[in-house]
Amino acid sequence: MLGLNKFLFHSAASGRLPDDVRAGLAAWRDSTAPSLDEAHFQTRYLVVDIQSAGGEPKNGRLLGIAASAVRHSAIAPDATLYVDLDDSAPAQGALERRLLAFLQYAAKAPLVTYHVPYVSGYLLRTYKERLGINFQPQWIDLAWLLPAMFGDKESSLQPLDHWLKNFALDTGSGRRNAMENALLLARLLQMLLLRASAKNIDTAAQLIAESHASSLLRRLG
Fold first, then answer.
1. What is the pTM of this model?
2. Given this model, what pLDDT does residue 170 score?
3. For the residues of 153-216, what is the DSSP string, one character each?
4. Is the per-residue pLDDT at 11 higher than 80?
C-alpha cells in the first residue's frame, strides 16, 4: 500500500510514552489500511482541518485537530471528532492520548484538506515530537483538485472562501473554527467526488494521483 512505509517510529520519543499509548500505537501501526481501489461511494474519506497559533508549521503550535468523515457520499451527523491540544497544564500523557485518539479515528483512511503542506506540516511535526512517528498519510488537496475538476468555474489556485462562495456554502459568519471548516470542506469533497466520477476518476487511488499531478503541473507551470 502506497505510503505505509512512511508511518515510522522514532525510538527516542516513543520510549518515553505511557504504556497504554505505546500499546495503542503498536495496534494502530499493525492495523490494515483500507483499500484505495474501491469506488468513492465505498471509501471512507476523512476531511481534516487544524487550529494553530504562531504562523508556519516549523515554529507554530498545533492547538487542535478537527475531522469529519465522508462515506457513502454522506456526512454522518456523529462522524466528527475534535482533538483539543490547547492545554497549558495537561496531565502526564494526556496530549499523547488525544493524538492517539485521532490516529485511531482516522484508521489510515485517505485524508482530505485545503493546502496540504500547511496542515500536514503541523501534524507531521507534532506527531514526531509527541509520539515519535513520521506521520505521512495519503493526502488529497482540495486547493489543487477543485480548479482541476471545476475549471469551468475557476481554473487557478484560490483561497478557500472563493470556493465556498462559488458553491453557495459561504455562511457569512466571518472567521470559522476548525470544526466548521472541516464540515464545509466535507461538503466541497462531496461535490468534487461527483465531478471526479463523471471524469472517470473513480477511486481514492486515482484521486490521490490526480491531486499530486495537479499540484506538480501547476507548480511547474
1. 0.90
2. 73
3. T--S---HHHHHHHTT-----SS--HHHHHHHHHHHHHHHHHHHHHTT--BHHHHHHHHHHHHH
4. no
Could you tell me which of 139, 152, 154 has the C-alpha nearest to residue 189? 139
Instruction: Classify burial at 150, counting beta carbons within 10 Å of its beta carbon; exposed 0-12, middle 13-18, buried 19 or more.
Output: middle
CB-CB neighbours of 210 under 10 Å: 18
Q: How far apart are CA 56 and CA 47, in angstroms?
A: 21
Residue among 192, 150, 218, 180 at smallest CA distance from 67: 180
- For residues 67 and 77, the answer to whether their CB atoms sit within 8 Å is no
Q: Which amino acid is located at 215 in the chain?
A: S
The C-alpha angle with vertex 113 and arms to 185 and 148, in degrees rounded to 5, equals 85
- Strand 74-84 with 8-9, pairing: unpaired
CB 94 within 8 A of CB 88: no
- Interval 150-167: pLDDT, tens: 999 888 889 999 999 999
Nearest to 120 by CA among 100, 138, 103: 138
Cβ–Cβ < 8 Å for 104, 24: yes
| Radius of gyration of the chain from its Cα atoms, rounded to whole angstroms | 17
Q: Which residues contact 159 (CB under 8 A, 6 or more apart)?
A: none
